[in-house]
Task: inverse folding
């Protein structure tokens, strides 16, 4: 009886071994696994740019960043967002899982249009950075009043 | 999560949540010390009132929803990310005091404290030689 079970175990072991050998033989054939949304990215933070009548809005998700951790500047024809997200293990804790990546970043985004660089403002709330780039006065649509010229009146 | 799908318009009243976004699992850190387990999740764009944290049996369910847009969103020139809602479930290990679970938000992250039950905290066992040996 006991020997029977042992044989059964042995069969499983052999199958397992064969599986391992096959796995090794086909190593490298595997398709790369699809990356999770939170996989470490070369580009961080990701940004969305919106256009309203008066301004361009640049939004970026920077969870965990406080006001002092991020700087926003307009340099020539670029909007530059710099900062560092430090993710530290709290004192005295041990780690079970770490998916939140620490990152030091610089993102240089071309300005989406002519803007008033002096009026640029930025806010940070709930981990979302919103930069408002008001459009330059010359770039705003202007109403041209149409007058009837005297000559054409008859 | 029975309410994940779009609720149809019913009885002439606006449904509680007609607007749904795609949901994704947030990146999560899990830490532990002698007194508690600590879960930290990135949930950018979610206000405190958008967070729904539930404990049922040994499961902790997190749903974090962004506020519904108040007006039509302006057209996007560049879209590198989708504004997703966040959902995650965690199995609560034995030895956690489920009634004592607390949570707070810190600039787009959610921090959940799961205190250990007194009985589950590690104790130092004093080893003494048996008298007479």
Result:
């Amino acid at each position: 009886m006991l020997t029977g079970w042992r044989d059964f175990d042995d069969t499983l072991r052999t199958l397992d071994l064969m599986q391992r050998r096959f796995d090794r033989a086909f190593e490298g054939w595997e398709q790369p696994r699809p990356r999770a949304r939170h996989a470490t990215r070369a580009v961080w933070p990701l940004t969305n740019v919106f256009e309203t009548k008066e301004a361009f809005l640049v939004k970026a998700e920077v969870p965990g960043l406080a006001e002092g951790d991020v700087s926003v500047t307009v340099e020539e024809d670029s909007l530059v967002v710099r900062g560092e997200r430090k993710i530290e293990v709290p004192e005295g804790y041990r780690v079970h899982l770490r998916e939140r990546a620490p990152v030091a970043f610089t993102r240089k985004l071309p300005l989406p249009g002519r803007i008033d660089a002096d009026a640029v403002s930025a806010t940070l709330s709930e981990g979302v950075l919103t930069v408002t780039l008001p459009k330059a006065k010359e770039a705003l649509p202007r109403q041209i009043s149409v007058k009837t010229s005297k000559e054409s009146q008859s | 999560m029975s309410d994940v799908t779009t609720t149809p318009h019913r009885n002439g009243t606006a449904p509680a949540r007609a607007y749904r976004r795609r949901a994704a699992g947030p990146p999560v850190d899990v830490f532990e010390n002698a007194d508690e387990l600590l879960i930290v999740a990135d949930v950018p764009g979610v206000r405190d009132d958008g967070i729904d944290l539930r404990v049922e049996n040994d499961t902790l369910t997190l749903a974090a929803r962004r506020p519904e847009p108040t007006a039509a969103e302006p057209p996007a020139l560049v879209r590198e990310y989708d504004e997703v809602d966040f959902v995650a479930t965690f199995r609560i290990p034995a030895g956690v005091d489920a009634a004592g679970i607390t949570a707070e938000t810190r600039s787009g992250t959610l921090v959940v404290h799961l205190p250990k039950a007194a009985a589950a905290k590690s104790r130092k066992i004093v080893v003494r030689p048996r008298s007479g040996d």
About this structure: The longest strand of chain A covers residues 78-85. The radius of gyration of chain A is 30 Å.
